[in-house]
Amino acid sequence: KMADKLKKEKDAAFAYVRSIELFRPLLLKQQGLSLDTATAKNALAIEQRLLRLSRFLTLRSANAELSPPLDVDADWHTVLLCTDDYQDLCRSCFGGMIQHNLKDAFELSEQQKTARRERFIKAYVDIFGFDDHAREWRRSQAHGTGKRNSTAASSSQSSVVNAPTRKKIPSAPSNGKKVTLHVYCSDGRYLDVQAPSTCYLEKILRTLNKGEDTRSLRVVHDGVCLQTNLTLAQAELEDGDSLYVRAAQVGC
After folding, report:
1. Side-chain-side CA neighbours of residue 101 (13 Å)
2. Are 197 and 177 in contact (CB under 8 A)?
3. How far is it, in rounded angstroms, from Cα 196 to Cα 162?
4. What span, in angstroms and rounded, lies between the C-alpha atoms of 136 and 190?
5. 178-185 and 242-247: which strand pairing?
């Protein structure tokens, strides 16, 4: 067991270094940045995303029954678009391709998908420890934000999902203070958005999407997919926090 743990740690470290070489420019470009314009904070955030992805792929290479949390899955979809580089990563680090099976997205129930994510988190903790990434994923699973809407219409890149049903949530305060959020969009836009803490995330999405339908979008903060029927205060967003706005993606 110790030998297996050490091998996975070594494989993940190698995959991380290789993914930095292959995909850091791509993920920076998504945010409208480059290696020359990125701040240390930008670079660290990208490196953490690639570290999570590398560790997931390491575990997935040994067990195809593991599924990633939403934040890792979004980055997996992104690097899959770079077919040659993704093949390079898989073959040089794992000896063969690690497939993303879209068939599972339609055949597995939500309970099965959740169970597969739970198995991944357990495997992650066993090998890499209960770090900040695992803690966020546990919180996401506990709050039900690791689930996808299975009624989505499919495409290889994104899908339109049903708008979230507005649930009974605590009333927002009448006078909210202004909050500035750093918003990174998957189309490469980067914006600083200032809004009162009583503003709903859904309203911010509509503004970003120029009034168009926002049901195909997800908002991710610290690895957690946020419900858009929450206000900034209810989502516990603070001044200076970063949000990632991405297309909803089909996958398990």
Report:
1. 12
2. yes
3. 26
4. 24
5. parallel
91/95 Cα distance (integer angstroms): 4
| DSSP helix/strand/coil, 190 | strand
Res 173: pLDDT: 45
Strands 178-185 and 224-226: unpaired
CA distance 138 to 176: 30
Distance CA 74, CA 90 (A): 18
- Provide the angle, in degrees to the nearest 10, between the axes of the packed helices 2-30 and 110-128: 110
Cite the DSSP H helix spans in the chain: 2-30, 40-62, 70-80, 83-94, 103-107, 110-128, 132-142, 201-208
Residue among 60, 69, 195 at smallest CA distance from 132: 69
pLDDT in tens, 85-107: 999 999 999 999 998 887 776 78
Q: Please write the tens of the pLDDT for every residue from 138-185.
A: 887 776 644 333 222 222 233 223 333 333 334 444 456 889 998 877
Structure-block tokens of residue 113: 């998908």
Total residues belonging to the chain: 252
Burial tier of 215 (Cβ tally within 10 Å: 0-12, 13-18, 19+): middle
